[in-house]
Design brief:
- 31% of the residues lie in helices and 23% in strands.
- The chain has 356 residues and is an alpha/beta fold.
- The chain has an 8-stranded parallel β-sheet with strand order 9-8-7-10-12-16-14-15. The protein has a 7-stranded mixed β-sheet with strand order 2-3-4-5-6-1-17.
- Helix 3 crosses helix 4.
- The protein is globular and about 85 Å long.
Length: 356
């Protein structure tokens, strides 16, 4: 159906997972990544406009379920997202998500959308934005450690937005690597399958770690570092889960999204509370330096922040309307008299049919 910005306020645009996939394919994956990157950059430039907080997390022995809210004076968004590393053994995704975009002036939900696929895209777009800001401009080879559900998105974002031409890939699960190689066949990327993390990292300009196990791991260790390397640490995203050795952080300039959240969830959770970090929005706005010389080692300690979901939701909302895609759902009652909520429970009188 064709949608417009003048929908009945009691109707909410709904993007199911299949509809979001169709919308992304119709628009094109590289174009979608660029659009999300641009939306995230625009919103990070308005950092002070947002009412920000760290996500609300409920942890269990199996994983975590989180709510990620944020708002400016126009739009409010939240994301429901889980992280359950053992889900793949049950035939379920490790990460599953959905979200809402709402009008601040009225509280009306404008969009209800899947965010599992969209989160992978926005995470990759954020990683690429950080790398464009922090990595050496001549970076062409990337090590990709962890070849699970989000790996292809990271690879394509770095190819199309950063200029990566060679991937050096490793995963303890060889089937995951085979899946990655198959999915990226025809992408134009040169893919080198490696037998160890050290082999994959050797010769890489950028290292992306995106592992799933909920544990304090040391995926990248100090002896793997090379001058000028940029590390994109994506997998360390909850308390008790890290990927980088503490000495890697000590040797690097470390950049984060939202410091209060990253100190609890990111790789810097293992560092003292006064360990120096720089928020990415300050670099993007020119308030703080990013990379200052070619030999500098930089780390983007990415945990995912609600503002990125806000950006992704408003981008997908605009794209769906422009493409005339999605359906409408009645999340709230459509009332003739907004003071008469009880009317929603009244039986609808059957229509009379004339018999000839």
């Amino acid at each position: 159906m064709t949608l417009s910005n003048t929908m009945n306020p009691a109707h909410t645009l709904f993007l199911s997972a299949p509809a979001a996939a169709e919308l992304i394919n119709r628009h094109g994956i590289p174009q979608t990544l660029r659009g999300m990157r641009d939306a995230i950059a625009e919103d990070f430039a308005r950092w002070a406009d947002f009412d920000k907080s760290a996500r609300v997390a409920n942890h269990s022995t199996h994983g975590v379920i989180e709510l990620m809210p944020i708002a400016d004076d126009t739009l409010y968004s939240f994301k429901y997202v889980n992280g359950h590393p053992k889900n793949t053994g049950l035939g379920l995704s490790t990460v599953m998500a959905f979200g809402v975009l709402a009008d601040v002036a009225t509280g009306t939900p404008l969009l209800l959308s899947e965010l599992t696929l969209t989160t992978a895209l926005r995470t990759a777009a954020t990683s690429a934005l950080a790398a464009q800001t922090l990595a050496r401009p001549d970076s062409r080879a990337m090590a990709l450690i962890g070849n699970g559900a989000q790996s292809e998105f990271q690879a394509l974002a770095f190819q199309h937005l950063v200029g990566i031409t060679t991937l050096r890939v490793f995963d303890v699960d060889r089937a995951a690597t085979a899946k990655l190689v198959s999915n990226l066949s025809g992408s134009g990327l040169e893919i080198v399958v490696c037998e160890s993390i050290a082999e994959a990292v050797h010769g890489a300009d950028i290292v992306t770690t995106i592992t799933a196990d909920k544990t304090n791991a040391t995926i990248v260790t100090p002896e793997m570092l090379a001058p000028g390397m940029h590390i994109n640490g994506v997998g360390g995203d909850c308390p008790g889960k890290t990927e980088l050795h503490a000495d890697v952080l000590r040797r690097a300039s470390v950049f984060v999204e939202y410091t209060p959240q990253t100190r609890v969830e990111g790789d810097i959770q293992q560092m003292p509370a006064d360990f120096a970090v720089t928020e990415l929005h300050d670099v993007l706005a020119g308030r703080a330096p990013g990379r200052t010389h070619d030999g500098q080692i930089t780390v983007f300690d990415s945990v995912g922040f609600a503002l990125e979901d806000y950006s992704a939701l408003r981008f997908m909302h605009s794209l769906a309307i422009a493409q005339g895609m999605g359906t409408t759902v009645s999340l709230i009652p459509d009332l003739a008299d907004p003071k008469d909520l009880f009317a929603a429970l009244r039986p609808v009188a059957p229509k009379l049919q004339l018999v000839a």
